[in-house]
Write a structure and sequence with these properties.
By secondary structure, this protein is α/β, with parallel strands linked by helices. It has nine helices and eleven strands.
């Protein structure tokens, strides 16, 4: 057991375990031998340029794509061997925060949050649904937006509501897709704090896909750099960028904002 960012991580329990993972599309080799573990209570930031396979990796983890070769175990389940019903059950234990928040424009905030709850958990009373919605809204600091439409919210507020909608099913694993993309630096910092708060409050294990090095540095207990279909290095942020590799140095110099 180790404490990082004031949070206990169990390095004896992997919630995601990937070994020898390969994935190609025609002649395009995207993943070329991925080995990776995400441990219980841990945040890992995955960095890489566009087209390096970050999104493909996430889709394989949640069973939207099948690997060509290799083993993917999520919460003790071999993902590519699950039947549809088993896969749907597993996905309920995994929260996915979309880059564009993926809110329903015709629903207000309450309805957006209540929808996944009532669709997936039957026989909840109206009062139970209301309590769950209010709890996640409090967690993301937007209790006063409960009756507003997504069009009335700022970009940062929509990101927060998207995270709240994911949290309402109390997932064990959170997957964040470019959580600070398109946000100003102040709002980005608020989302970074929220990701860390979610880790603390809900004891989630998370993968944060990001181009934002400030986000990676401040949310990831470990950082993983994906280059040419493989992880170049996995370690602390400083360990990953302590290198003379020109691709990694170029990525750092182009992206990093102090």
């Amino acid at each position: 057991m180790e404490e990082l960012k004031n949070h206990i991580i169990n390095y004896n329990e992997a919630v995601i375990s990937i070994s020898g993972l390969y994935k190609s599309f025609g002649d395009l080799d995207v993943l070329k031998g991925i080995d990776f573990e995400l441990f219980k209570g841990e945040n890992v930031a995955i960095l890489g340029k566009s087209g390096t396979g970050k999104s493909v990796l996430i889709k394989i983890i949640i069973g939207l794509l099948k690997p060509d070769k290799g083993e993917v175990i999520v919460l003790g389940k071999h993902v590519d061997k699950l039947e549809r019903k088993e896969l749907d059950t597993l996905r309920l234990r995994i929260g996915f925060s979309f880059q564009n928040s993926a809110l329903y424009d015709s629903m207000n905030v309450y309805q957006n949050l209540a929808f996944p709850l009532t669709m997936n958990i039957k026989n909840l009373s109206k009062n139970q649904v209301k309590n769950e919605v209010e709890e996640v809204l409090e967690a993301v600091g937007l209790e006063d937006k409960i009756n507003q439409l997504p069009s009335d919210l700022s970009g940062g507020q929509r990101k927060r509501i998207g995270i709240a909608r994911t949290l309402i099913l109390k997932p064990e694993i959170m997957l964040y897709d470019e959580p600070t993309s398109g946000l100003d630096p102040v709002t980005s910092e608020e989302i970074i704090e929220l990701i860390n708060d979610v880790q603390e409050k809900y004891n989630t294990s998370s993968i944060i896909i990001t181009h934002d090095l400030t986000c990676a540095k401040n949310t990831g207990n470990r950082t993983a750099m994906l280059l040419d279909g493989r992880f170049f290095k996995i370690g602390t942020f400083d360990e990953v960028f302590d290198t003379e590799d020109e691709q990694v140095k170029g990525f750092y110099n182009y992206n990093f904002i102090q």
